Fold:
Amino acid sequence: MWRAELATQFRRRRVKALLVVLAAIPALLAVAVKLSGGPEAGNGPTFLDQVTHNGVFAALAGLTVTVPFFLPLTISVVSGDTVAGEGSLGTLRYLLARPAGRSRLLLVKAGTAAVFCIAAALAVAIGGVIMGAILFPLGRVTTLSGTTLSLAEGMLRTFLAALVVGSSMFGLAAVGLFISTLTDVPVGAMAATVAFAILSAVLDSVPQVHSIHPWLFTHYWFAFSDLMRSPVTWHDISKGMLLQVGYVAVFGAAAWARFTTKDVLA
Structure:
């Protein structure tokens, strides 16, 4: 069931298109830097001013650019479609006819959404590394602390940053899964999930409500940049992962409570 759901998910044209678009964003960013010469030091998104010196930074700059909007949007589309999409197609009732049961089906849907979160972040990193290697030199990687790493270690930290970014989207995927159990209209579930992400980001930028900032699932989305310090600063990354666990637990439980008692008509 798990393998079948993963295969079905990643065979969909929409999912393939989303991954291609995500990979294209850092690639286009690298092309723009190549044509323009790049911003001056300290200007533009984090890591962008380093791209001309080392193509590895195209992946990190791509993650910085996609985290606020593009990644949440694609994950909202996929997670909002998990259950509502089956309901709109009329296939949910047939899936529940299997002996696996509702809890296992929901768990498989949640796991598939989580895999997509990781795949989406890795697509950004891979697109950036490939185009960065084509357009710019590769070599020792200068960290935010001013020290240098070997190319191998720099690449390792870059893909580890992608894994951190993907994991930091688990809370949003759990929200999308829960909303998806509330409706049979996937577009509505997707839009509501995107709205939830936007609301969290807006609140996170308002200083008057700073007391709730550490509880917003968007608050630690940029903590992955701490992987490019020497030594690595794990404080915000670990707090961000713990926060995602909390969101997954709360909204996952809410999704289970709703889905296991839902009257499935389609």
Notes: The chain has one domain: 2-261. The chain has eleven helices and two strands. Strands lie at 141-142, 148-149. Residues 2-261 form one domain.
